[in-house]
Amino acid sequence: MENIEIGRKRVRIATTVLAIYWLTLVIATHWPLKIPPPGQPIFGKDKVLHFSAYAGLAFLFGLVAALRKRRGATVALAGVAAVYAVLAGFGDEVTQPLTGRDFEWWDWLADSLGATAGATLLFVAAKLIASGALGSHPTSRSESGN
To answer: What is the per-residue pLDDT across 27-67, written as a single tens digit (0 to 9) for each?
Structure first.
């Protein structure tokens, strides 16, 4: 019974972190900005920020889903997490004109690539943890009685 309560607590914490992260991301991407100087390169710091932000979002989507299912991250779960983050990125770009910002296809591409990377990172990390490659697996200690 204690393990179930710990699992529920982890889900609540991960869901709260996801909600705060996503809300912060929406605010940051919709905050009106001054127009950047002319000649800004297409693949500058802005695209790195988009990539990183949506990698984090996909990772958190997948983490919450994996904790709710009480299983490791599967390819399907990582794929769904990536799709959610890609759709969130599209929704973000579509609604930015409402706050005086512009829809940019290059931003959405960076969001999408980041989402794919974040979901892939989640899947790989889950497999490494499950295999014990990163140290002892938490359930292996409880099962062995240590």
So the answer is: 988 887 765 555 565 567 889 999 999 999 999 999 998 88
The Cα-based distances of 35 to 1, 38, 39, 40, 63 in angstroms read 56, 9, 12, 10, 36
CA distance 118 to 120: 5
Domain ranges (residues) in the chain: 2-31+46-138
How would you class 82 by CB atoms within 10 Å of its CB: exposed for 0-12, middle for 13-18, buried for 19 or more?
Answer: buried
Q: How far apart are CA 146 and CA 139, in angstroms?
A: 10
Q: Are 42 and 53 in contact (CB under 8 A)?
A: no
Report the distance separating Cα 8 and Cα 12, nearest Å.
Answer: 6
Mean pLDDT of 122-127: 88
Give the contacts of 45 (CB within 8 A, at least 6 positions apart).
none
For the chain, the maximum distance between any two Cα atoms, rounded to a whole number of angstroms, is: 64
Summarize pLDDT for 69-85 with one digit per residue, the tens. 876 668 888 899 999 99
